[in-house]
């Protein structure tokens, strides 16, 4: 019998029952901790069965996954596979027009989907048109077991977006149906493990600890996120990698005891938030905690960012900001799950607890039209939001004092 031509790394073996079987053996140089392009090899040595045709099919799928790992972005993609479909989607304008962080989250989810292990090879080597609803449900279970509820939901949502577009262009992609539609997965706000709201007590302790450590800028950034409900990258002025929008709160937009201009980086617009309400005896300070932190800062030029690294006088880098936040959190004895994003979440939650459902005038969740009339209406709404929030804060504080008094009396 002529010797069969076997794919790379495939060895014939005699089975216990005397039959000939086939085995794909990962080369020794590719075993972990060996890496290519920052990743360990996603495939392992595998049995391929005794049927030659089936063994060759499985081996080719494994070799394709192996080559993708070895060559990285330069590996040739097989048309019609899941990895090819993701690459096709990433070339569409609807993907390239997304913000940097969103694109990065999508790409991570796609890589995680492609890396899901199958009986032979990985999902990235499977034909995209062949995936049906049953397969999608099975993939979701595997993703949940490895990546948790939130990230696995995000992965399936990204697949739903991709397959939806693929079905619209079925002549090009071969995909006619979307197996990821109707899975009943609750919406996720993005990649990652989620976020919780910081309490005002945690926020107060964090700021006090940051000040004690000589990091006033971190206390001020926390106040901008918690009190003014700004996103972390807006509070710190992290540069947009795509350079499409401006970020950061500058000194020129801050008039003490009057207003502060905040960047809504979703639009690039600056919205003036009133800091007081009323006049004379009826005057109420709406953000005393925020203004107290700003007053501790050395005021810079009008175009200078308010939050800057004390060591250099320059804007924070995202990496150092995360490291410093961890140090402050640990020094304060605060829980590990308190992220910097928790401050914004806590501020928005506090507004909701005060009885205000629509926080867009402060938080910038939605796009704002650039008109003076709309901005005036927005400022008035922001003033009402802050007034009700301030009443809520004082009511909660008064209740806490009353409860302490009752405890002391009982004692």
TrEMBL record:
It comes from the Bacteria. InterPro entries: DNA_brk_join_enz (IPR011010), Integrase-like_cat_sf (IPR013762). Keywords: DNA recombination. This is Integrase. It comes from Sphingomonas hankookensis.
